[in-house]
What we know:
The protein is of the alpha/beta class. Helix content is 36%, strand content 15%. A hairpin with a 6-residue loop joins strand 1 (3-5) and strand 2. Helix 2 (74-80) packs across helix 3 (85-110). The longest helix is centred in the N-terminal third of the chain and has 26 residues, at 85-110. The two termini are 29 Å apart. The model has no long low-confidence stretch (mean pLDDT 94).
Amino acid sequence: MPVGPVDSNGTVLYYEDSGVPPESSSTYATVVLAHGTMFHSAIFRRMMPYAAAHSLRLVLLNLRDYPGSTRYSAAELGMLGGPTREAQDAAITARGREIAAFMHWYIETEHIPPISKGTEADETQRGGISLLGWSSGNCQTLSVLAHADKLPEETRVLLGAYLRSLILHDASLTSIGETAPELEGLYSPFRDPNLNYDEKVLGFSKWVSCYWSQTDLAPQSSAFAATVVERKMLHEADTPEADRRLPSVERMSAEKFAAVTDIDVMARSQILLQRIDTEIYQENLRRALSHLYVVDETGVKQPVWPALKVQVDWCDMSVGEELWAATKIRRQYGGLSDPRRMEVFRVEKANHFVHWDEPERFTEFLARMI
């Protein structure tokens, strides 16, 4: 079982690797993909056969407490559910540090190509590594960039030569610290008072993998909030398209569903990540979108990873909370005084599980985006 060490205490993260693309062994780009809630990195496996054709190397990473990765200790669980904001903040910062340590180890172990430019006629960026967080996975991946100035110097310097971008793939509202009271009336199984805990967990997978009415982003307003709330699940519509738009999980066999999920993790630790003080995630987003600085040995402030860009993609048939999250991110970015570069991409006619339902299309999309 391939695992990467992330500290001196024996903590490891499990990963799967698509390998070096044979036709671009010195110029390929690497993407580390971090999963969301309940669905672990196996949800990205369908992309792996298409990686080499697009000069990509995909690394599917299981976060802490998911299959193959180290479980949380009682002390770590205590910090995640901490009695103080400071304890929770330290716990989320530690998760980002672990991901950064994994990338440091992976770069040195696999000798992946660093970022480079092409010829004078073709200045396309080559090599390097991007970090993608899907949905609530951004609770942890955003912490890498938000606290990059606090990483060990060796890690910070090494990643500076490799990190191309941080990708927020259909980010969840939770991951950016938002509760969206503007969306009162928007259904979520976790807000359904008629469901017990087990029913909420099982209902989550269907709800989050539905295809919803296709919608464009718009500035935050009461009118746009109403549009988001009023969107319909297409499999319930009386149209010829309904059968083609079944929720992604309803088109999985029981064996496939079991192979990409860890339902028990919800009660073990994932619920704690969902309940972290929202201000911690809000601050992490602000810091991740802003330039950070460290003071060098001469006393001069130096930017941390100044060329790194944040890339936000949103799927226009995803759940309403993810659409609202994309508008929140754009609004947050517009109010920053020292923002790093950010790009926003729309994935058309795609739900929250586009990487599973349409792996070839999303792999190609990812290759073009980074």
